[in-house]
């Protein structure tokens, strides 16, 4: 199902995207997810980036709410992957710069 956004909603999404990208830790998360190029656990990402569970939860939430990542919960584990559609539509070629 495709949801069309009006101009104001699109602008609000852009603001969330750029705020999410304005943090070095979140850039590291995105870089790691791009490098592994597959769905991986939030815990694995947190270990590689060396951040606490609470910090990881916060950063993953910001990225998810900006539409930059997709999170899937399976039992007690959360899996995260990049949402390439959002990158392609709103920040085209950004991933190439990493």
From TrEMBL:
<dbReference type="InterPro" id="IPR011991">
    <property type="entry name" value="ArsR-like_HTH"/>
</dbReference>
<keyword id="KW-0805">Transcription regulation</keyword>
<dbReference type="InterPro" id="IPR036388">
    <property type="entry name" value="WH-like_DNA-bd_sf"/>
</dbReference>
<dbReference type="InterPro" id="IPR036390">
    <property type="entry name" value="WH_DNA-bd_sf"/>
</dbReference>
<protein>
    <submittedName>
        <fullName>HTH-type transcriptional regulator YceK</fullName>
    </submittedName>
</protein>
<dbReference type="Pfam" id="PF01022">
    <property type="entry name" value="HTH_5"/>
</dbReference>
<dbReference type="InterPro" id="IPR051081">
    <property type="entry name" value="HTH_MetalResp_TranReg"/>
</dbReference>
<keyword id="KW-0238">DNA-binding</keyword>
<keyword id="KW-0804">Transcription</keyword>
<feature type="domain" description="HTH arsR-type">
    <location>
        <begin position="6"/>
        <end position="98"/>
    </location>
</feature>
<dbReference type="InterPro" id="IPR001845">
    <property type="entry name" value="HTH_ArsR_DNA-bd_dom"/>
</dbReference>
């Amino acid at each position: 199902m495709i949801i069309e956004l009006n101009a104001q909603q699109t602008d609000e999404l852009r603001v969330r995207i750029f705020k999410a990208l304005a943090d070095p830790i979140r850039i590291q998360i995105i870089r790691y997810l791009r490098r592994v190029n597959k769905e991986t656990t939030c815990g694995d990402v947190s270990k590689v980036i060396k951040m606490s569970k609470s910090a990881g939860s916060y950063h993953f939430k910001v990225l998810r709410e900006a539409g930059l990542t997709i999170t899937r919960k399976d039992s007690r584990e959360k899996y995260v992957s990049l949402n390439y559609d959002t990158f392609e539509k709103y920040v085209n070629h950004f991933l190439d710069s990493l």
